[in-house]
Specification:
The chain has 303 residues and is an all-alpha fold. It has helices at 2-11, 18-23, 28-50, 54-83, 88-94, 97-105, 129-146, 153-168, 175-191, 197-205, 212-232, 236-241, 248-266, 271-298. Helix 4 (54-83) packs across helix 14 (271-298).
């Protein structure tokens, strides 16, 4: 995400982003979000199946997604947004407080008064829009689980097909795309043990020969298989690379605001400088988010 945004936040469009230049319809940021939703579907479905009750599942999901999001919204609104507000004297007066609380409660990035005028794309945090749809996917798993469909391969395959087939002919950034890849992860949970590893690489590439959307699906399935292979590998060098702290959510939450801060505050507009500096700073923010916000709340999760 941070790599792709290093072009988009400077140019206010995607024309220089390398993967978009190659495909004309997607960026590395899009691919990263798609991969996350596949992985999330795979893990969240298993989380529901391991839960002893609906309440336990809901509590686990809420403790994972809400605290980091709420703090990121507060930092963005009262920190970055206020610091670079067009009018600081009227910023809090013009902030719609009812909308602020309503949007935050529903995991939507709340609108703020005009700010970041020096930025080509004057948004405090343009990455938060996916969090709302992640939560909706949690609810989808809940519904499928309650009616007994989540436990059945044929039902998950049917729901996956209902979402993914329209996406293959649409290829846009709509919520349909996110739900499609989330359900791909749920479906993968059922079929992955049945697919021989030696045939997997050929199988997932076949659809990509006829449809660019299927190419995305194919690459993601290869990526998800490689990810779990790495995750279960016992290699010494891989063990050393595995971080002790899960900073991924925090890096995602703070990557965009960090880049906007560098653009607005330091006029940093060269992507080859913006990317590594913002990546390093976002990693630091992600670590702080994990240590101070996410990990303490996750300790409240039911065992």
């Amino acid at each position: 995400m941070i790599f792709s945004h290093s072009f988009e936040l400077v140019d206010n469009d995607r024309h220089r982003e390398p993967l978009f230049m190659l495909t004309k319809f997607m960026t590395f940021g899009d691919l990263a979000v798609d991969f996350f939703f596949v992985l999330s579907g795979y893990l969240v479905a298993q989380s529901f199946l391991r839960s002893t009750s609906v309440w336990q599942y809901v509590r686990k999901r809420a403790l994972r997604i809400y605290p980091g999001f709420v703090v990121a919204v507060l930092v963005g609104t009262f920190g970055l947004g206020y610091e670079f507000a067009v009018s600081r004297s009227t910023y809090f007066h013009d902030l719609g407080w009812k909308e602020f609380f309503r949007y935050t409660a529903t995991l939507i990035s709340p609108p703020v008064p005009p700010t970041l005028a020096a930025c080509p794309r004057p948004l405090v945090n343009g990455s938060l829009w996916t969090i709302h749809f992640e939560a909706l996917c949690y609810l989808l798993v809940l519904v499928l689980g309650v009616v007994g469909a989540l436990q059945r391969k044929w039902a998950c395959s049917l729901v996956f097909g209902v979402f993914v087939i329209p996406y293959l002919f649409q290829l846009d950034n709509s919520p349909l795309r996110l739900v499609s890849f989330f359900m791909a992860g749920v479906w993968w949970m059922h079929v992955e043990p049945e697919i021989p590893r030696r045939w997997l690489w050929c199988l997932v590439l076949i659809p990509s020969l006829v449809n660019p959307g299927a190419l995305t699906v194919s690459l993601l399935f290869i990526g998800i298989r490689a990810f779990f292979w790495l995750g279960t590998s016992s290699s010494t060098w891989l063990d050393r690379l595995r971080p002790k702290d899960d900073i991924s959510y925090g890096v995602y939450l703070y990557g965009w605001p960090v880049q906007q801060l560098l653009i607005a505050g330091f006029d940093l507009r060269a992507w080859w400088l913006l990317f590594p500096i913002s990546l390093l700073l976002a990693a630091g923010c992600g670590w702080l988010s994990w240590k101070l916000v996410e990990a303490p709340f996750l300790k409240l999760k039911p065992k």
